[in-house]
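Journal club side-thread
Mid-discussion, someone asked how the predicted structure for our own chain would compare to the paper's figures. Pasting it here so we can look after the session.
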Amino acid sequence: MRRKLATTVVVASAMALAACQSKAPDTLPPQPAGSTPPPDSAGPIPGSQADFLAQMSGRQVIYFDTDRYNIDSADIAALQAQAQWMQQYPNKRATIEGHSDERGTRDYNLALGERRANAAKNYLVSLGVDASRLSTVSYGKERPEALGSDESAWSRNRRAVTITID
């Protein structure tokens, strides 16, 4: 009798669990009204560092002659483009990194990198970018863009690079 009762309970439980299984709907319900479509993943987010790099197309870097830190005519166009982008996004801040080539002492190259970063910063400020939005840092010869000990590598390493801060 007990065995029959136990079997009946087990069978009844299995039937109850089988009845609780849900079946996936054939069609999904419609989207709620007023929902926004997912963002277009075709381009960078406006105002981001990726957007800055895309808009600058290499103009985020300006190059200098040996032992120089003056802004020349080629640099002016790049800095004007940077200033326009910065004015388009008034809440964005940027750091300007100053670099030098491998020649010279560490202290000399740090000072030269600082002068290059400050020259770029001062030019951006003269174009209307608020100075409080810009900071500078000098890496001297510690972070070369190009490895090598020839004029080609040295010319690529004498630079100021603008990096936006998200």
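Post-session note: The first strand starts at residue 61 and ends at 63.
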